[in-house]
Amino acid sequence: MVPVTVTRPRRITTGLIALLSACLLLSLAPVASADPDKVPKVPVPTVTSTPGDYVVALADAPLAAYDGDVKGYRATRPDDGERVDVRSGTAKRYRSYLRSRQNRVAARVGSTPRTRFEVGVSGFTARMTGQQAATLARTGGVVSVTPNRLRQTPKDQNSVNFLNLSGHQGVWSKLGGPGRSGRGVVVGVLDSGIWPESASFAGDPLGERSRGRFVPYRAGGKIVMAKSDGATFVGTCQSGPEFDRSDCSTKIVGARYFGDAWLAKVPADQRDDYVSPRDGDGHGSHVGSIAVGNHGVRTEVDGRDLGRISGVAPAAKIASYKVLWEAKDAAQSGGYTSDILAAVEAAISDGVDVINFAVTGQDDPADPVQLAFLSAASAGIFVAASAGNGGPAASSVQSTSPWVTTVGAHTIAPQYGTVTLGNGRRYAGVSTSITGKVGPGPLANGSSLAAAEQNAAAAAQCAPGTLDPYRAAGAIVVCARGGVERVAKSAEVKRAGGVGMVLANPTADTLDGDLHSLPTVHVDPPASIDIAAYAATPGATAVLTRGNSTSTAIAYPQLARFSARGPSKGTGGDTLKPDLTAPGVSILGASAPAHNDGQDFTILSGTSQAAPQVAGLAALWLGAGVRPSWSPMAIKSALMTTASDLVDADGSRFTDPFGQGAGRVRPDRMLAPGLVYPAADDDWLGYLEGLGKNTGTGVKAIDPSDYNSPSIAVGRLVGTQTVTRRVTAVKRGVYRVSAKIPGVDVSVSPSKLSFRRVGQTKTFRVTFTRRTAALDQAATGFLTWQRSRSQVRIPLAVTPRELEAPALVAGSGASGKVTLRVRSGVPGAFDVQASGLATGTERTGSLAPNQNVQYAFPIASGVKASRFTARSTDAAADLNLYVYRVVDGSAVLVAQSATSAAQESVVLSTPAPGTYVALVLNAAAAPGSTQTPFTFQAASVVPGTGTGDFAVTPTTSQAVAGEPIDLTATWSGLQVSVPYVGWIEYPNGTGTVVTVN
Predict the structure, then answer these.
(1) What is the dihedral of CA 246, 247, 249, 253, to 10 degrees?
(2) Which of 320, 447, 608, 897 is catalytic?
(3) Residue 449: Cβ within 10 Å count
(4) Which residue of 227, 238, 359, 681 is surrounded by the most CB atoms within 10 Å?
């Protein structure tokens, strides 16, 4: 092993840690040869030494969820039907307790809380180094420490008719009509603000006293409204540029903005927004109009009558919480975690009934925003969140916490346009921009119309400024999707003098009814390929017409290609997300004219458009005369268990639960669920504990697969696994079960549930046993409880695995043993083999604070495990250890151990062969010391070699699928002060790393 350099990190403008050119070579004998001249000098990871803003979430219950279990402090959690009273003396006293706890935690690393949170989550923001953050993350009472991230909207025509809300037999008619659907409910929209002049949000001026049931009024500086659940909403109308108190009304009952972090980071001259609740993007207005926009609003764009639109819950009110901001540089647009947390706290305190969150999230239930939503759910607030637009990639789903309803997007009935080619062939696509016949006219691909010195590939996509007006004049241009926004392509064709556009998907994708600036038809393969091929022939012509004049229809509802998919990596595949899907493609809604070419309405696609559909449905549930006292999880269960399947492009049934969740929402069925799967605080906290999160509540951990969700997911099915569920009757009677997953036996006990009264709860168990299902591939199906015409269906997803074994076990001493339990998913002979123990040559040295030393060494092919250890005899010192792999001449960080301890260890299982660099950093010397002595070792396990009489017993067993096998690893003759590493290998080639000392 060759020591490469010792350096002191310094900050440079890019935020990276540069290595000083001068280096101190340590005179240490190498344990393996490596040429230091060919090994890159690696940087200390920026996060360890560069200060940044972090959000610290504590285990203490916030005001919205505190039950009074701290001696001397009374409960602040509201009773059912009440909102959190953050101004009471009890709340003020408990708030002081939370602040003292926050101060003590921050003081552990010499930091100071900046912004505090006490309503939705107990926590704070602080300026810290990554090292300080890592130390706090391992401190008792801390649930999570995360960077204060910039979050953005997922990069992204739906009529309420599709949801069967309108019409004489629609859901609205059953609720008393649109004017009564959602009465007494407030939906809080956390987004980019609101455009108050939009007809979707028109309301009467607020009076100084109540003028009727559920009619808001002003009381001093607040807006007050009695709600359907008997509680009171108290909102704020915050003034600012282009927004004042008169912009709130009997429809807009709250308008606030939260941007302390964003405004501090983006200078005024780089902003493209209003420092007020006014919508600086249009996204928030669009989302709000989908959820609760007024009924029957007439829409017109560029003289085109697009019909009338309505929100899902038109009688509900909107409270806008602006957390997303527009910058001149799109990379700076968005909202920071701390600002979003402040908005969630305000929404809970104000007393909203529903929260809509169409913002990028995390696949981590312990993310601070998700924890704040837990408190919101605890306070009775239904939270709808977009699943994200990362599809069709697997494991792209976001907002995976079970107390949130995560919504994917599907298509709805398309508005057609037809492309008729000069050869007589016709192709149907989607169009909202054709009002009359266009052509016949020349048809040409954008690539053939490139302006001088313009790239043909960019012209093929009709990027701005790429088309030659001389060539494009009078033509219908075929523009390939990609590169630039879709509407920018039609704008370029129009600029160049074209008369129409065919927007061609190179591969299958969503067909979007965008509001193009000239007649456009959007087509998918094979139509897009055929049209482009014909356009390349001499004399090609085409005609664009409204409607579908072909014999081929576009199947719907399909899962949108962009809609994010599961499984959730953050939960180990034991939580099924998204929960369900809703319309999210080509949705017509309100906009912000100043940022939409002066247009009051626009069409957008995305899971951002799907989530407010579900938020609106929750508002219908909670409306006066419906079920205003229902819990968020009961509503979620009702929506999921009454959902139905989507379709594939060929019209066949689509059942993939990682795409559609439980299926598409069915408002016409949701009000009669039969049974619901309840869940509340203890379920959520037990779930977090089961994921290894210390909530500090003492709630018993549960396997995440056992969380009482209206879905079942098992990320590792090894032979057999049993999960439990409980259901509560909405309709009494006898329910019988059916359950099926191809290749997996599904047994439900009991198979019949009898409910004598509404509200009665019963438990059942579901046992999954792999038979013929493929290993390492998800097997899916459904479980359904049936009573007369009531059908209660939940999706199932299990992934059979060949083996379950611990990744690492640890022991200590000159001699000793450790036991481990493994399970095989397949029956038969189960042979194991032990390799090692291995230890490397000891290297010693001394480092000043912030100084580091780097060692380069090779790992050969066939190595089973490698262990790197840095330790100091000074227990008060703080070492960090980082391991890089050299790939194509660059160093890639592969593992690190950066706690506040004097000993750090990194273990790699079956590492890829190549050159590695280990970096030992003296993060902090012991108090009063200027140097930290250290010892470094690196060892690799090679089969057939080792020391210490390392062995495992039994070496041969007869495995029964799913049954445990107990193994014992033993060793003797070791040195107590030396670290060792070994390997236990199983029949499938995987193994468990064993570390000693």
Answers:
(1) -110
(2) 608
(3) 27
(4) 359
Helix, strand or coil, per DSSP, at residue 437:
coil
**Phi and psi of 987, rounded to 5°?**
-60, -30
Over the chain, what is the mean pLDDT?
90
Q: Helices (DSSP H) in 266-363: which residue ranges? A: 283-292, 337-350
| Distance of alpha carbon 286 from alpha carbon 306, whole angstroms | 15
Cα distances (Å, whole numbers) of residue 904 to 136, 935, 939: 17, 11, 14
The answer to whether the CB of 658 falls within 8 A of the CB of 155 is no
The catalytically annotated residue of 144, 283, 866, 940 is 283
Separation of alpha carbons 212 and 355, rounded Å: 25
| Nearest in space to 400 (alpha carbons), one of 356, 370, 380 | 370
Render pLDDT for 231-263 as a digit per residue (tens, 0 to 9): 999 999 999 999 999 999 999 999 999 999 999
pTM given for the model: 0.86
Q: Is 840 left (phi over 0), alpha (psi -120 to 50) or beta?
A: beta
The highest-confidence range among 23-37, 291-305, 672-686, 949-963, by mean pLDDT, is: 672-686
Q: Percent of the chain at pLDDT above 90?
A: 70
Position 36 confidence tier, pLDDT thresholds 50, 70, 90: very low
Decide if 516 is catalytic. Answer: no
Among candidates 911, 964, 954, 995, which has minimal Cα distance to 804?
A: 964
Interatomic CA distance for residues 899 and 920, integer angstroms: 13
In angstroms, how far is CA 328 from the centroid of its own chain?
26
CA distance 435 to 547: 10
pLDDT reported for residue 227: 95
Q: What is the pLDDT of residue 154?
A: 61
Supply 53's token pair.
Answer: 């803003």
Question: Rg of the Cα trace of the chain?
Answer: 31
Most confident of 87-101, 587-601, 761-775: 761-775
Sequence-distant (≥ 6) Cβ neighbours of residue 7 within 8 angstroms: 19, 20, 23, 41, 851, 852
Q: Give whole-number Cα distances, 56 to 61, 143, 428, in Å.
A: 14, 8, 53
Task: Spell out the residues 6+ positions from residue 60 whose beta carbon is closer than 8 angstroms to its own.
Answer: 98, 101, 122, 141, 696
Give the integer Cα–Cα distance in Å for 243 and 249. Answer: 13
| In contact, 677 and 730? CB cutoff 8 Å | no
CB of 59 closer than 8 Å to CB of 123: no
Q: Which helix (H) or strand (E) holds 667?
A: helix 667-670
Tokens of 613: 């559909």
Annotation marks residue 608 as catalytic: yes
Q: What percent of the chain has pLDDT over 70?
A: 94
Beta strands 317-322; 252-257: pairing state = parallel
Nearest-angstrom CA–CA distance, 654 and 647: 5
pLDDT of residue 23: 27
β-pair partners for 222: 219, 236
Catalytic choice (53, 60, 156, 191):
191
CA dihedral 456, 458, 462, 467 (to 10 degrees): -50
Q: What is the DSSP-derived secondary structure letter of residue 270?
A: G
Burial class (CB in 10 A: 0-12, 13-18, 19+), 884: buried
Q: Is 33 a catalytic residue?
A: no
Q: Which residues contact 673 (CB under 8 A, 6 or more apart)?
A: 637, 638, 641, 642, 730, 790, 792
Cis geometry, peptide bond prior to residue 440 (ω within 30 degrees of 0): yes
Nearest Cα to Cα of residue 844 among 36, 29, 41, 20:
29
